Amino acid sequence: MTTFDQVLGLGDDALVAAQRLAQWCARAPELEEDVALANIALDQLGVARLLLTYAGELEGAGRDEDALAYLRTDREFRNVLLVELPDRDYAVLMAKLLFLSAFQRLRYESLAAGDDERLAGIAAKAVKESAYHLDHSALWTVRLGDGTELSHARMQDAVDEVWPYTHELVAEAPSLRPAWLSTVDDVLTGATLTRPADAWQPGGGRDGRHTEALSYLLAEMQVLHRAHPGARW
Amino acid sequence: MSDDRRLTGPAQVPAHDSPLWEVFVRPRRGLSHTHVGSLHAPDAALALRNARDLYTRRQEGVSIWVVPATAITASSPDEKDAFFDPAADKVYRHPTFYVVPDGVAHL
Questions:
Q1: Do B42 and A143 touch (CB under 8 A)?
Q2: Residue A4 burial by CB count (10 A; 0-12/13-18/19+): exposed, middle or buried?
Q3: In terms of Cα–Cα distance, which of A163, A144, A137 is closest to A24?
Q4: Within-domain flag for B85
Q5: What pLDDT is attached to residue A6?
Q6: Given pLDDT bands bounded at 50, 70 and 90, which one contains residue B106?
Q7: What single DSSP character describes residue A43?
Q8: Neighbouring C-alpha atoms within 13 Å toward the C-beta of A190
Q9: What is the span of the domain harbouring residue B69?
Q10: Distance (Å) from the C-alpha of residue A160 to the closest C-alpha of chain B?
Q11: What is the total count of domains within chain B?
Q12: Three-class SS of residue A11?
């Protein structure tokens, strides 16, 4: 039985990831990368809309995708901490996208084969997009990791910084962990990067306990809707 | 960007790290790849992915080629007359003396 919280968690992961990616619009290292990141952001947003709409129906309280996206506070968001972390460096963005898309691909694959037809339909559409997000982030991880001394150091820093947060992401579906690790290991090895040791495992995002970064992200995302409720283009 | 660089102008701006690639897209099976534009990318794999994002966002194609712009040898505008004008008065080179059967597409 699919629950409101499950679908909300998946939807919030996609929504917050989309917002973070969109923040790179006009700031990416190259024009071409700018378009690629915006494409990925829109993929994530598209899936988020379908999932939040479905979550609203499961809840049965009359909340639609906009109500869920724009009118909840940070404590009511159920995304994992990984997606809300600020991208202080392009390498951090790529590390986050690598870990997230490697997991999303596996998660959507298993949901696409699941009993819930509505969720299976959404997941089947999303899984092809996740495969591309994984491909894109893996390419850049390898190029930065196996690039110059400086790019290697920054990519390794980024992987070290983000790694603790992957535990919360993958904990949701422990059976997928071996496949996820194998995907991620292949990329890290190809990028001459070292997989960090498992130590600190921050969590709490699924219960609404977030880092302060989420509040700032939501403030920017929600300000227009809150200032002009129901505004339309 | 420092003030110095702005004052000294474009000559001080470092050259683009990524070479230029020309992009060719095949719109659908049975048609040839057509030049659609160019882009910057550090290597061939990324050029192909950038091309996918820039030129096939609206299902414009089923196949993409990327070619380093430096690998293309182009005719010079100065040679235009010698290259192309002599073909102007040779009507027998055009298949205008045949009737094209109905239903032949892309000819």
A1: yes
A2: middle
A3: A137
A4: no
A5: 94
A6: confident
A7: H
A8: 13
A9: 3-75
A10: 25
A11: 1
A12: helix
> How many Å apart are CA A81 and CA A16, to the nearest integer?
10
pLDDT digits (tens, 9 = 90+) for B29-51: 989 999 999 999 989 999 999 99
pTM of the model: 0.85
Q: What are phi and psi of B47, to 5 degrees?
A: -60, -40
Class level of CATH domain A4-194+207-227: mainly alpha
Contacts of A21 (CB under 8 A, 6+ apart): A37, A38, A40, A41, A44, A93, A97
Chosen from B50, B55, B59 to mutate, greatest number of chain A CBs within 10 A: B50
Q: Which amino acid would we find at residue A95? A: A
Could you identify the residue written with the tokens 């390794």? Answer: A156
More confident site: A230 or A214: A214
Cβ distance A217 to A84 under 8 Å? yes
Which chain B residue has its CA at the smallest distance from A30's CA? B40
